[in-house]
Amino acid sequence: METDLFIAGKWVPASSGNRFDVLDPATGDVVASVADGGESDAIAAVDAAAEAGPAWAATPPRVRSEALRRAWELMTERADDLAKLISLENGKALVDAKGEVTYAAEFFRWFAEEAVRGAGELNTAPSGANRILVTRQPVGVCVLVTPWNFPAAMATRKIGPALAAGCTVVLKPASDTPLTALAMAAILAEAGVPSGVVNVLPSRSSGKTVGRMLKDPRVRKLSFTGSTEVGRILLAQAAEGVINTSMELGGNAPFVVFADADLDAAIEGAMIAKMRNGGEACTAANRFYVEASVAADFSQRLASRMSQLKVGPGTDESTQVGPLVNEDTVAKVDSLVQGALESGAKAETGGSRPEGAGFYYPPTVLTGVAPDAAILREEIFGPVAPIVTFTGEDEAVRLANDTEYGLVAYVYTGDLARGLRVSERIEAGMVGLNRGLVSDPAAPFGGVKQSGIGREGGHEGLLEYLESKYIAVNW
Ligand code: ADP
């Protein structure tokens, strides 16, 4: 297990010599100590990325593609070990961690395929005076900042397209989960990615290290996944240097069930949309809006399914729901639940924090939630499903859109025309229509409103790392 910084192809301690602890969320015990990068390490990482930049940009796309393809193969071969590592530092159930490894590796395969598709355009000017030639060039050095909820996938979703485009990167992983990011760096090096193209800088002082890198004029792009709160700070910092940004921020996904929906399918979808990753996903269903005539049935069935889930250490094969990542997360989930209960909601299952070690929270279903409850406004990031009833399409759309977020929405209905109509009216970057999972490396992932700017995955994900250069030509 690598625990040092990865800069210019070498494992190095922090220049300060400082290290920080990584905890096992199932016990709160220390599992590793990792080098704590500071500002001078951040600059060393940018130096390495800037130095490696021109040669990597000039590397044939097919060669870049094959390195990514090899990284996909290596991740796939080592899926079990990587899943254990993810589970160890993040806490998620192994079944979720295995799902994450497949999803994460798939970004390398997808962008291996996209690396050879950075085509430009050629047109004749409307006046006929000249040709308009558009070529695509890599943006340059990218700073990638990732969260702890998908320690592998959030890294590969950024590294894959950056490398495919010919960019070099410094990745700053979340300090709760740096081990997986370091494992990704080792795999990329083994896959043939040259020294300096990928640098990984675990750091507990992320405000300082990321802030320092964003002040460096050699850094041309920031790709961030995390909270809207931190995203706002980083957007302001990026504005100083007019740095290109891709921001994947918070979500507050509505899960809308119309009375004409197939309720069996809606329950299956709800279990995935709510419980994938134990609810620690920006795509997690955060607010359930169920048409009044089927609400009691839906709530009882969801509560029954949720209460049967096996909660335990993520690394135990039979666990379905692991602990949350840390104490702050459990405390926040519990305060949202207690707030809802105090304002009149009823816990159909779960609803209070268990005694004992580890950062556990039980799967919880709340009914009768007051429309102004904080749990409907804030991202829960835990295994809690608050249910609210509605009547008719207009009310469903109004409730779904009553948030500053707009990442994803889920809609269940047996009427396809209604489903498409409502999907168009909902303010979100993505909609799951009769489906509880939208994430796919081949599709553009991202949000509107305060859920972010830009898209990751699909062909758009590659374009985020390319600049268009227009050459006016006479020939
Ligand atoms: P979460 O902890 O829910 O994943 P955050 O937005 O707090 O979401 O963190 C996402 C990433 O941003 C993490 O890598 C974290 O270390 C980093 N981060 C947090 N605060 C700052 C900051 N002020 N400047 C730069 N990066 C930050």
UniProtKB/TrEMBL annotation:
Keyword Transmembrane helix appears in the UniProt entry: no
Pfam families, sorted: Aldedh
Annotated InterPro entries: Ald_DH/histidinol_DH, Ald_DH_C, Ald_DH_CS_GLU, Ald_DH_N, Aldehyde_DH_dom, Aldehyde_DH_Superfamily
Keywords: Oxidoreductase
Domain named Aldehyde dehydrogenase: residues: 11-471
Database matches in SUPFAM superfamilies: ALDH-like
Active site: 248
Protein family: Belongs to the aldehyde dehydrogenase family.
Protein name: NAD-dependent succinate-semialdehyde dehydrogenase
Source species of the chain: Paractinoplanes pyxinae
